[in-house]
Design brief:
Shape: elongated
Oligomer: single chain
Radius of gyration: 25 Å
Largest sheet: 6 strands, mixed
Order of helices and strands: EEEHEEHEHHHEHEHEEHEEEHEH
Number of helices: 10
Distance between the termini: 39 Å
Strand content: 25-35%
Length: 309
Amino acid sequence: MNKQNVISIKNLNKIYFKNTSKSINALNNLNLEVKEGEIFGLLGPNGAGKSTFINILAGTTIKSSGMVNVWGFDLDKNPRQVKASIGIVPQEINVDPFFTPEKLLELQAGLYGIKKEDRITNTILKLVSLEKQSKSYSRSLSGGMKRRLLVAKALVHQPPIIILDEPTAGVDVELRHNLWENVKLLNRQGVTIILTTHYLIEAEKMCNRIGILNNGNLVALDSTKNLLKRILTKKVTFFVNSQVKIKENLFDSLNIFENSSAKLVISYEKSKMNISKLISYINSQNIQIMDISTDDGDLEDVFVRLTKN
């Protein structure tokens, strides 16, 4: 069953004018869709345009041109409905230290015009595991609790889409793991997640699809699986009992990094060479292969290749 697009972006441009003669294209003819119920990763180096894109959706930056449709609402015609469809978890921790989590969520719900009887403050606090701290001052919360409180604030109006902007920047491994469990739980409940992150291994594990921005241009948009297939080279280490004699230019695309009496380390292009031929060649020299270690590369390899100048 095809899922509907909950965000549809067509020919989106944002131009910043530094002065009359100099302009910067923060977003350049951006086209992308985000599908209902997916975890969509938006990646890119600093200055790629990720924050500009999020700020346009949030209504804090005005686009130069293009069409933005969120949950069926056109940003130009229905900006309030677009804003109501999105919850944004910012990078910076911005909670009032003298408010309790309960008070903060009640205040946030009030800002969205949600009537007291329609508020789900206790449910949200339970969801982000802050029910025991509901009446504690925010200043007494740990860094991880404050992060979860930001997620809670983004949920008060029950938006169908949550944007997490670098949510695990500068946090420890345990907290990162806890945050992702929260995100997965929200996603299982039907919330569509858009995630920006610098931790590429995180995007690889979490995201169904990934868009990569570079200098305001969308340089890749595909499923995480298909992006990983773009890695052309594979690295293999053979642990052997004798040095392998390999004639020059015998195998297409073969690079030898180390060739000793204990180890042969090579790389090759998957489309040009079949590794089984090299294994047969080693066996033909009566050399025993004790073990094989392979490295297929990861999303970081794809990212570096697509964003390098």
